[in-house]
């Protein structure tokens, strides 16, 4: 139990630790903002395709993956329809679109953390004593850049830095809670985790294609954004590869 407490707490705190450097950013140029958005998109695509999707397939099959991704995509689509939304007009002053995009991005990251927390909890509840530590370490290291990118995205969209840090840290708190739920109901949640991982992948991919890529293009910074996307993608792939 002590190992589970330390592991789940460390995993959640990694999100807050990663968000701390975002407090140093204040004024970011339009070109820098577009590049950061594209870099974030690359990170999220790699996290989905090289982390969440393979993990879901290892625990289930193609049908489960398909259902989970479609559910994640449909959920974000419904959120977009229910929240007043203006599509990006490539104008740095678009406040309504910016606020909606920020909340959708934050929602996607929060949804993405829930199945990760469940995975940690279920791993600690499994007969394999070493599995929990391995999963917690892998997810915790991944949470560091995710916490940074979440806070930075909110800052670049006009949110106060302290508020952005707090919200990014809270997404890690949700992961801690879902970790405890996964441990307590290991038998019940073991079959749900693959759906949750695929659901998170679908939600993240929706945000990337619907929000991040359109917002990072169309202002004359397409080439810089494209390279930033590639660098973000490669960075996350390298981290996934190094973690084995």
Automatic annotation (TrEMBL):
Membrane topology of the entry: Multi-pass membrane protein
Location within or outside the cell: Cell membrane
Segments passing through the bilayer: 35-53, 62-83, 163-183, 189-212, 224-243
Pfam families per record: Zip (PF02535)
Keywords: Cell membrane, Membrane, Transmembrane, Transmembrane helix, Zinc
Family in the record: Belongs to the ZIP transporter (TC 2.A.5) family.
PANTHER family: ZINC TRANSPORTER ZIP11, ZINC/IRON TRANSPORTER
Protein name (database record): ZIP family zinc transporter
Organism ancestry: Bacteria, Bacillati, Bacillota, Bacilli, Bacillales
